C-alpha cells in the first residue's frame, strides 16, 4: 500500500515511554526526525521493548505468531497464509497490508518478536477513510503486562495521524479479551447495535462467477466493460 | 492504493456483451490491448451501458448515489462523506479506495452514472489477500435489469485477476436483496456461521486514546516506539 509506505508519520516520534515514564532518554531517542529503526537499536541498554514497523525479515516470526493466534481461536487448520505470502503481500511491489511488531531486545534473534499488529487502509462510504485492524496479538506468556495496550496505542496514533475516521476490526464472539480491550477504548459492536453481518465469498466461488455467463439484461440493451 | 492504480487487468478486456450476447462488435471493441475508456465512447451507437473505472469527475454523481444508498438503509443522517472526501481518498495522492461505475451512454451527462461499486484491497491473516467490497449500488429505477449482477461480475473478475483469496463485505441484516445476491454466488455469512462481530472505534475515541497516558508495564520494563 503506497500510502502507508511513503507517508511519514511526523507525530509518531513521541514515545510510549515518554507518555508513561517521562523518561528523558526515551524522549531523546525519538525527537530526531531522521530517527530510524537502526537508531532504536542504540537504546538496547535502556529499553527492553521496542515497537517498530514490521520488516521483511520479521515474516518468519510473524507467521509463527499468526498461527498461534489462529490456534488460540481453534481455527489453526484454516490458516492458508505462508511466510512467502506475508513477504509478497506486506513487503513486495504491491503491498496490501502494513504491520508493526513488538520486539524484545533482550531475547535471542529467533524469538525476539513478542507481538504484532496487522492493518490496512480502507474506506467507509458514510464515514470516510478507515484503518482496518486485522490482528493485534501478543504472545500468551506476555499477556497482562500492558504490551498489548501499547501496540493498540501505536495503532491509534497511526489512525489519528492519517486522518482516519475510525478503526474497524472483526472479533470472534467468544474472544472476550479483545472485545473488552476494544470496548475499553470506546468501540461499538456494529453486529450487535446495527445488525451488520460480515460476508465472505471464497476465491473458488469468485472464479466460478467471474468465468460464468451472466444473464442478459432484461431490457435487451447491451453492456460493455472497459479495460479497467 | 498503488496496487490498484498500476495493475493492468489484462484479462478484463473480454466484455460482458461477449459473454452474454456473443456480439461481434463488442468483441472487437475489447480485443485491442490499448483499449481505453475513450475508445469505449466510440461504441455509443451500439452499446448503451458501460462499466468503467471511476474517474475524479464522477465523484459528484457517485456522492449522490452514495447518499441514496444510505437513505435506502435509513442511515442517511449518518453520511459524513463529501464529494471532496471522495476526490481526495479515491483519486488523490494516497488513494485508499478504488471504484467502478456503470454509465448510461444515452443519459445526459449529469445523470449518466446509474450505479457504482467501491472497493479496496486488504489482507486476512488466515486466507491472504482479500478484496473488500464496500458498496455495490444500482439506482432503484434500474433494479432487476441485470445491471447489478454485471457490476458484481466485474468485481469478481478484478478479484480473480489480482489473486485475491476471497471477497469480503458487510451487509445490514434487513438488506435481504444484497444478502441473496451474495449468497447466489456462494457467499458465507461469517457473522452467522463463525460468530464474527464487526467493531468500530470512532475517530474521537481513537484520538482520546492516542493522546492518553497508557498504563506502565507491569514488569517495570521500558518500551519505546520507533518512528514508523
UniProtKB/TrEMBL annotation, chains A, B:
<comment type="similarity">
    <text>Belongs to the acetyltransferase family.</text>
</comment>
<dbReference type="InterPro" id="IPR016181">
    <property type="entry name" value="Acyl_CoA_acyltransferase"/>
</dbReference>
<feature type="domain" description="N-acetyltransferase">
    <location>
        <begin position="64"/>
        <end position="211"/>
    </location>
</feature>
<keyword id="KW-0012">Acyltransferase</keyword>
<keyword id="KW-0808">Transferase</keyword>
<dbReference type="Pfam" id="PF00583">
    <property type="entry name" value="Acetyltransf_1"/>
</dbReference>
<dbReference type="InterPro" id="IPR000182">
    <property type="entry name" value="GNAT_dom"/>
</dbReference>
<protein>
    <recommendedName>
        <fullName>N-acetyltransferase domain-containing protein</fullName>
    </recommendedName>
</protein>
<dbReference type="InterPro" id="IPR051016">
    <property type="entry name" value="Diverse_Substrate_AcTransf"/>
</dbReference>
<dbReference type="GO" id="GO:0008080">
    <property type="term" value="F:N-acetyltransferase activity"/>
</dbReference>
